[in-house]
Write a structure and sequence with these properties.
Layout (H helix, E strand, L loop, with lengths): L11 H4 L2 E4 L7 H4 L17 E4 L6 E10 L4 E10 L7 E3 L2 E5 L5 E5 L2 E7 L2 H15 L1
Parallel strand pairs: 1-2
Antiparallel strand pairs: 2-3, 3-4, 5-6, 6-7, 7-8
Length: 137
């Protein structure tokens, strides 16, 4: 019996990169499957790499395999997409608004006043509002 051996074997970090991207909140997985979406970074990416995408509000996680890459485009295959937060839209509760605000994460506002910020998810901001609403009236 002839034993077949791999022609090339090397540690994965030598053979490929795993990239982490933080797309804008409005960018969808479908948008990232458009090869032109990657034009501004395509020269850094090579076939065989993986890309993990998590927008700043963390409403989804997506993982892609790079099928092909050139100097101004990247062709991806979606490996998995997981919805982490189903409802990431802002919420109104009377005079209060709970919304995702970039570096402030989830925050609670009343008019132009920021009452609380840096909540990791919408539910924690809602919880803060419920616990503090009587003090804010």
């Amino acid at each position: 019996m002839i034993v077949k051996k791999p022609t090339i074997i090397e540690e994965a970090p030598v053979a490929r990169n795993v990239w982490h991207v933080e797309p804008e909140v409005a960018v969808t997985v479908k948008d990232m499957l458009d090869s032109d979406y990657w034009a501004h970074v395509a020269s850094r990416i090579r076939a065989g790499d993986r890309i993990e995408a998590v927008p700043s509000d963390r409403h989804y996680f997506a993982e892609f395999f790079v099928v092909a890459a050139s100097s101004n485009w990247v062709k991806l295959k979606l490996l998995r997409e997981i919805t982490l937060i189903k409802d990431n839209d802002k919420t109104r509760s009377g005079d209060f608004v709970i919304k995702f605000a970039g570096r402030h994460k989830w925050r609670v506002e009343r008019g132009s006043e920021i009452l609380s910020k840096d909540h990791d998810d919408k539910e924690l901001a809602e919880q803060w509002l419920e616990e503090n609403k009587s003090n804010l009236q």
